[in-house]
Structures are given as structure tokens and as C-alpha cells.
Amino acid sequence: MGSKLTSRSTDYSKWYNELVVKADLAENSAVRGCMVIKPYGYAIWEMMQKELDRMFKETGHENAYFPLFVPKSLFEAEEKNAEGFAKECAVVTHYRLKADPDNEGKLIVDPNAKLEEELVVRPTSEAIIWNTYKGWVQSYRDLPIKINQWANVVRWEMRTRLFLRTAEFLWQEGHTAHATRQEAIEESELMQQVYADFAQNFMAMPVIKGVKSESERFAGADDTYTIEALMQDGKALQAGTSHFLGQNFAKAFDVKYTSKEGKQEHVWSTSWGVSTRLMGGLIMTHSDDLGLVLPPKLAPIQVAIVPIYKTEEQLQAITEKVEEIAGQLKSKGISVKFDNRDTHKPGWKFAEYELKGVPVRIAMGARDLENGTLEIARRDTLEKQSVQQSEAVERIEQLLQDIQENLWNRALQYRDEHITSVDNFEEFKEVIENKGGFVAAHWDGTEETEDKIKEITKATIRCIPLDFKEEEGVCVFTGNPSKKRVLFAKAY
Amino acid sequence: MGSKLTSRSTDYSKWYNELVVKADLAENSAVRGCMVIKPYGYAIWEMMQKELDRMFKETGHENAYFPLFVPKSLFEAEEKNAEGFAKECAVVTHYRLKADPDNEGKLIVDPNAKLEEELVVRPTSEAIIWNTYKGWVQSYRDLPIKINQWANVVRWEMRTRLFLRTAEFLWQEGHTAHATRQEAIEESELMQQVYADFAQNFMAMPVIKGVKSESERFAGADDTYTIEALMQDGKALQAGTSHFLGQNFAKAFDVKYTSKEGKQEHVWSTSWGVSTRLMGGLIMTHSDDLGLVLPPKLAPIQVAIVPIYKTEEQLQAITEKVEEIAGQLKSKGISVKFDNRDTHKPGWKFAEYELKGVPVRIAMGARDLENGTLEIARRDTLEKQSVQQSEAVERIEQLLQDIQENLWNRALQYRDEHITSVDNFEEFKEVIENKGGFVAAHWDGTEETEDKIKEITKATIRCIPLDFKEEEGVCVFTGNPSKKRVLFAKAY
After folding, report:
1. Tens digit of each residue's pLDDT (9 = 90 or more) over A451-479
2. Is B356:B40 a contact under the CB 8 Å cutoff?
3. I need a surface site. Which of A112, B113, B168, B243 has the fewest CB within 10 A?
4. A186 in helix, strand or coil?
5. DSSP strand E in A350-433: where?
6. Which of A29, A121, A151 faces B92 most closely, judged by CB atoms?
7. DSSP symbol at A31
8. Three-state secondary structure along B211-231?
């Protein structure tokens, strides 16, 4: 504690990095680009996992586990994927270290233990999974396959940032196989909706559902459905994607089924994933200059209780009362931490729970004991109020709901204020440069224009929103005709 | 279905491999030594994870996540560990694949993308974790650290078997740091007890708690606490270990704390883990020639219901009744699958649920409808009985408890019948060779004797049991004095 965070207005990026480390969420490790997720950060990720996993199962998916390694040749089988992903990846070439004969105490790679075929640490698992599905699918009776995996993946990123872009990250990847095109498209859309629901209902993070332009699509996908969020610095964050893969992987790995009519058909497929990047999105959607702000539904500690006392007798009397209230809160499924450490002062503890984003903080002192009251502080607005102990449980329960709702409304308002429709390129540049956020503009549909706009403004097409209506217009850059606005933004 | 399993008496090892594949638990992958854990197998593993995770948290542990990769130099820092583990491991040497200029469609490792320092895919995480803890520990106030991680690890095993020994496997690894020797020893013992409780109460798998002899200890441990189970072929399975690491890792990574008295002290530590190997133990403890037998507490499907009908009307009437009963079972937390697929006959379904170890199978036919009955079959004893529908829920609930208990008793009896005390080496060889199981024998405490016994009989010291009393005796091999019997067995 003690040393304050850099403020967002001073240096947003520095604020983020400091917050992640000081709030005990994650830190850099001895391995370039790989992070250590600390217990408090991991507890938030576990809560996300739990809800997502429930949602996946409720929509008919099962979990499984596929190997960490992908033989190099499987990437060759799926060329598009190889071009898109396999370039920067961790390659295992040997299977033994041995003592260096020329240098005592040192280890070297044993040159005699070279693998016949190199193994790639999975950057994503389409290749290994479709190579497996090949053995599982013969008939239409074997379909659909609706599998999810929770796993670590590695992409050799050059510039990394905690949670947002790391060489190793944790994610889930769904991989489904279907008999028909229509069913696979419906699955892709369903999972985009599941992600959007999770972002809204648990993260209190507004997202825009859309599809990617061809150049922003996952290599190997016919369509990429995305959810795009907006961070407080006006940059967009791609928070989850769901890919309609057509028959691309089925063709690359020769996965066919016999239809009811006895015909051999290639299988249709999807894949979809969200990652620990969501942690970055969660942090940057709600937090402030005092530290993390967590929506109650994803807070490992929802209520922190700090006693304020001078004598042991006072502490004992406070403890008795606190345990009664804490018990009632817990019986309602509310997580409570009574912080009776004698190694830290109350003020220090207040600052710590602010830094860590605990939604509700309660203080109880000697005067509260006399008056039958306690002080409730909410993290989102920093408001405090004195409340009768007898009403505390009910008030806190309501307050947690209010905070969840307030965070959503606040984030939604910010996001909506940062979608700007523009009709010429001067205005486009002006908004991207100074206001930030999403720019809704007409685009002529060509990759060339997309590239040029990116070159000039660093803004990319985040998505073609599903709920944008068709309208006649002209591309802000070329003046060529366009039928729909798309959303541009600078992005993480 | 259809093709029966090889019987255990014909070829135990073949029986096991067939069962794992046919019951849809796991299969080999395109990557040597790495398995695919299929949804049904993974669902069992998830149930194990859930209970273990709860037990870890109830004993004050938190989850976190550390990097997959360990820089080679960190293994050098911990020499003992390097000798014990780092020899056979996956080594990442490069970070890029590129198109082969001489061979279209092929990928090669980019020679310009060689890592400055090779990375080892973690075979266990002591090195990377203690390198991290160094930054977390300054004062006694920072202790204890009680962290667990659920992760994948890789050990380059030459001979692999599904679940029992695979190059990549899933596990949890606890890594704790303490201010005192005594606290660290208590932690090691506590986690051994947690593992033993889990084995008994959920897996219905009896285990013997003991400590390892020096030669069987984890490299880097001062003491290894183990739980040892017995499989139906008379071979032992090490099911979980908890290591008291002394100050070995703290010294290797220079992790010191300032005590209350202001002195600099090295930290004391433990590590402990169980893995997907437990799946192998679960399978081999209870299963029979018809397939898997699962204890109800770890069964993804506890009750399977199969309708037997000729007409659509019958199916409809059965469905109505089944849904009523299934609803009542689910409200008691019992997992139920109503298998109304019209693509398979009832007999086929019966065989499938036997193969997959579903504890209770219910059949309901037209005559049952008339009589208000249903047929209940239990997987452990294969007994069937006709039961009034009105009593079904209560009977099933009781039956699930009975099956859990019966599996425990059966396994316990088998295990106890296979602990043989012997007092001379002829008898020792005889029992190891013909009867199998554990042999309780005096041993002179030397590694030399241990090695010779292993050379002659293939039996190793599984553990020095905690509950064996001291008694005067002489080593079965050398005749030298001994104060305690130890347990020998052939082992997985």
C-alpha cells in the first residue's frame, strides 16, 4: 500500500500495469512474456471459469482434454492455420538435458536426444483436435460433437502485457462438429451470445456483437463472430470470438461422415474461445485511480469487515457482533472476510480493500457498538453510510445488486457516449485521435481501404455489428458506395 | 459394444487398455506418449478435481498459476532436482516455424529464431515457483504461503500407458512455504491425510500411508510421504505424494525471511501432488470383466434409465413416469440419464452402461407400467430386483450409498488379504512371484539391500507404513538387525 497508483489521466498504461501488480492479480515471471497469476487474480479467473463452464454445459457441451503438443506435420495439413498462427510459436526439438561435460554445474541440451519430428506447443488446438475427430466420426449418428477444453496455449508474442497479451495464457477453446452448415452457423452464433451474456451479466461489461472483416478473421474461418468491448482509454478490446469454420478443417484432416441418405459428406465445424485476456477487460472497464473495482458477481471477497478498536474488550465485543452478521451473510451465499489482523491499522486495510476492488467494506468501532450501528462503504461510488446492525444484512444484499447494476450502467453510458457516427475522413481522424472509442463509418468493403485507414489512423475494423441496419452511404475513405456502417477503433 | 473385453485373468494389462478405450475414458494421440482424455473420462476427473479442490481450500490453500516453461538455468540452481527430473523432458529451443524454401508445403524450424536460453516444459514446478517466492517473502508476516496449482506437466517417459504413465499428464501441485521446520512437516502430513481421506471417501480405494525409503524419495525432499494402493493384479500403485522439502529449495533459490526476532532464516517448504494417474487407480481398484465399475460419488451418471417398449404409446407412458422419478432423483442431487435413443436396442444400452460403470441401471417396460414397478440393477454385484415405483427414489438413494460402501469393503478385503508378513527370503520371493500384493518384511535399512531385492524380485519398498509398530527382527535378505517391517511390492 502506501505508494499511490499513477493516475489514469497521467499514464493509462502505467496505471494498468501498476494496478495489476499492486492489487496482487499477476506479475511478470522469469520467463519472457509469461506471467504468474497470483492467488487473488486467479480467484477472479476461477469465478469466471465457473460461470462460463456452467453456461457451456447448459448449452450441451462437454469438457475433454487434448495434448499440449502438436506435431509439426499437422500444421502443414492445415495450411491456412499454419500461415496465421504457426509462425511464432514455441518449438520443442529435443527431449533431454544433460550435464555439460565441459562446464561443471551447467546443463546442456543433449544433441543425441533430437526429436524425429518437432513438436509445437499448441497456439490453438484445431489441428490436434481435428486429427482426433477423424477417428471419432463415421456416421451422422456420431454428430454433433460439442466439446470444450480448458487449457494453456502459447503464442510467441514480441510485446506482452499482463493478461492482455502474454506468451502463455489460459483459455477455453470449444471445438464442435456438425452434420450441416446451418447447424454449425447456429452454434457459432449461440456461443457468441453466451459470451455476450457472460460479459453483460457477470462482468458488467457492455459488448458489441458483430462479425469480423475478412482481414481480421481467424485464419481458417469462413466467418468470425466477435464481442468487442471498450476500455476507459477509448481503445477497443476483442473479448471473445466464435468461428464458423465451414468445412475447412474437415477437408484438411479428411473428416467425413455417412449421411442418413448414405452419402459421404465433409463435417461442418466451429471453434470459440475466451481467455485470461478477459481479466484485462474486467480491470479496464471498471477500475479507478484508487485501484481495482470489481462487479460483486465476480468478487472473491464481496464484503470486507474491519474492526476499529483500542482495547481487547472492544475487539472481543466487535468480533461477537461481526461473527453474527457474517454468518447471516454467508448463509445467503455472500463471501465475507473479517480482517482482524493486528499487524495493520484500519486505514491501511481500507486502502487495501479499495486497491483490491472489494465491493463493500464495513467498519465497526466502539461507538458503533454503543449505537448498534456499523459503517458501510461501497467501492464503486466511495459513498459511506451508517446503518443499523439489525438492517445490515438486508442492506448489504441490496447494495451488492445495486453495485453490479451501477457498474453496468456506468460502463454502458461510457461506451454509448463513445460510439461516434462520422461521414468524412477528416472527422474520422479527429474522433480517433482526440475522443477515442468506436467510430461508426461507411466502408467500401475492400481490404485495401481497411489497410490504408489503419496505416493513417492505427484504427482497425473491430466488427460489422449485427444490429446495424443497412443504409445507403459512401465509404469515408474512398467515396465508393457502401450499404452498412462498420465500427472502427484503435484496439488492444 | 459388441466385442467383449479381454478378461483380467487372460491378460490384465490388455484388459486395462481395452477398458480405457472402450469405456470412452481416453485414447492415445498423434503425439507419442500423450493421451486424449475423452469427455466421459474427463467428467470423472472433473469430479475428482472438484472434491480435491474443496478439500485444499478447506485446509487453507489458494490456487494460483505459474508459467509452463522453466528456464534451463533454474534447473541448474537446484542440482538435486536436475538430476532427478530434468534429464528426460521436453526442451523448447526455437520460437518460430517457417515455410521450407526447398520444399513447398512443408514447414521447418527457423534457424534464426533460436532462443538465447532453452526453456524446459515443466516436469514439476518447484524451480519456477521458488524463483517466484523469492520475491514474495521478506518477513515472517509473509508466511505461510499455501498455494496449489492445477496444471499440465511433461516428463519424457519412454514406456507410457493411458493415465498410469503418460508424457503429458494433468495434476495439481501444492507448494507451501513456512517459517518453521515443524510447521512444514505438519503441512506435509496434513496433505498426505487429505489424499488418504479422498482415496477412501470418494474413490473407495484403500491406501496405506507411509514414508518412502531414501532411494524412492523425490529428489530434493528430506522426506516423502506417500499413499500406496493395491491393484487387482497384485501390483501397488503410488497414488499421491507429499514432500517435506526441508530448506533445500529455499537454499537453492536463496529465499530467506526476517524472523520476529529480526534474524535472517531460510524458509521451510513442502510440495504435494496427485495426478490423472488416480484415474488408473480408480479403474483398476473396482472394475471387472464387463467393464468399468465406478463408486457413485465419482460417477458422472449415477442412474441410467432405459425404456423397453414396442409402441409409441408405451414409450410415452413410460416417459411420463420416468420423468416424474428422474425429477425427484435430481432434486436429491442424484445425476440421472434417461436414454430414450431409438437408434439402439435395450440390450445394447445395458451392455453400454455396464461397460461405462454406471452404478445403477433402471429398466421400465410395458409390464412395469401395469404393475407400477421398475427393475433396478446394481453395477457392483450385477443383482437385479423389481421395485414398486412409489419406493424407487428412496431405494435408489439407499442403493447408491450401499454401492459406495460395498466397493470400499470389497477393495479393503482384497487389499488386507494381500498384505503378507514374511520372515525369510524364500517366502518373500514366493509371495511376490505367485500371490502378489504387499509383503511386510524386515529390512536392514540399506540402499544396497533394497537394490539387490529389486534386482532379484522386481519388488521395491513401497513405503515404511506409519502405523507399523517397532519390533525386533532381522532383514529377510541380509539377516542384519531391523526394528520395523516395511512394505515391498511390484509397482506401477
Report:
1. 999 999 999 999 999 999 999 999 999 99
2. yes
3. A112
4. helix
5. 360-364, 373-378, 384-388, 419-421
6. A121
7. S
8. ECCHHHCCCCCCEEEEEEEEC
Domains assigned to chain A: 12-93+119-286 (3.30.930.10), 301-399 (3.40.50.800), 419-489 (3.30.110.30)
Which of chain B's residues have a Cβ under 8 Å away from the Cβ of A24? Answer: none
**Is A69–B107 a contact, with Cβ atoms under 8 angstroms apart?**
no
Query: Is it the case that residue B184 has pLDDT exceeding 90?
Result: yes
Q: Which of A25, A29, A138 to mutate to test the interface with B (most CBs of B within 10 A)?
A: A29
pLDDT tens per residue, range A271-300: 999 999 999 999 999 999 999 999 999 999
- Residue B121 and residue A70: Cβ atoms within 8 Å? no
- Is residue B130 less than 8 Å (CB to CB) from chain A? no
Q: Tens digits of per-residue pLDDT, B14-66?
A: 999 999 999 999 999 999 999 999 999 999 999 999 999 999 999 999 999 99
Q: Does residue A75 sit at the B interface (CB-CB below 8 Å)?
A: yes
pLDDT for the residue numbered B76 = 85
Crossing angle of helices B12-22/B277-286, nearest 10°?
A: 110
Task: Report the 10 Å Cβ neighbour count for B316.
Answer: 11
Return the pLDDT at A219. 86
Mean pLDDT of A93-103: 91
Residues in A closer than 8 angstroms to B70, CB to CB, are 31
Q: Please say if the pLDDT value at position B85 is more than 80.
A: no
Distance from C-alpha of B190 to C-alpha of B430, rounded to nearest angstrom:
37
B331 CB contacts (<8 Å, ≥6 apart)?
none
| Cα–Cα distance measured from residue B374 to residue B385, given in angstroms and rounded to the nearest whole number | 8
Three-state DSSP class for residue B126: helix
How high is the mean pLDDT of chain B?
A: 96
Question: What does the block give as the cell for A270?
Answer: 466451429
Q: What percent of chain B has pLDDT over 90?
A: 93
- The answer to whether A96 contacts B74, with C-beta atoms less than 8 Å apart, is no
- How far is Cα of residue B82 from the mean position of the Cα atoms in its chain? 25
What pLDDT digit, counting tens, does each position of A130-156 carry? 999 999 999 999 999 999 999 999 999
Which residues of chain A from 323 to 382 reach within 8 Å of chain B, CB to CB? Answer: 343
Q: What is the pLDDT of residues B250-275, one digit of tens each?
A: 999 999 999 999 999 999 999 999 99
Number of Cβ within a 10 Å radius of residue A6: 17
Give the pLDDT confidence score for residue A75 in this predicted structure: 87
The shortest CB-CB distance from B96 to any of A34, A35, A87 is to A87
What's the mean pLDDT in A25-48?
A: 97
Q: Residues of B numbered 163-182 whose beta carbons fall under 8 angstroms of chain A's beta carbons: which are they?
A: 168, 170
- pLDDT class of B404 with cuts at 50, 70, 90: very high
Q: Which residue of A has its CA nearest to B129?
A: A36
Contact B168, B33 (CB under 8 A): yes
- Whole-angstrom distance between the N-terminal and C-terminal Cα of chain A? 29
In terms of Cα–Cα distance, which of A166, A226, A224, A176 is closest to A199?
A: A226
Q: Which residue of B has its CA nearest to A148?
A: B39
Answer yes or no: is pLDDT of A78 > 90.
no
What confidence score (pLDDT) does residue A158 get? 86
- Contact (Cβ atoms closer than 8 angstroms) between residue B70 and residue A31: yes
Q: Nearest-CA residue of chain A relative to B157?
A: A95
Whether A88 has its CB under 8 Å from any CB of chain B: the answer is yes
Complex ipTM, two decimals? 0.96
- In this complex, do B42 and A31 lie within 8 Å of one another by their Cβ atoms? no
Measured distance CA(A226)–CA(A223) in Å, rounded: 10
Where do we find the cell 486495510?
A349
The span from the CA of A9 to the CA of A339, in Å, is 33
**Are residues B267 and B247 in contact, defined by beta-carbon separation less than 8 angstroms?**
yes
Please calculate the CA angle A168-A38-A175 and round it to the nearest 5 degrees: 40
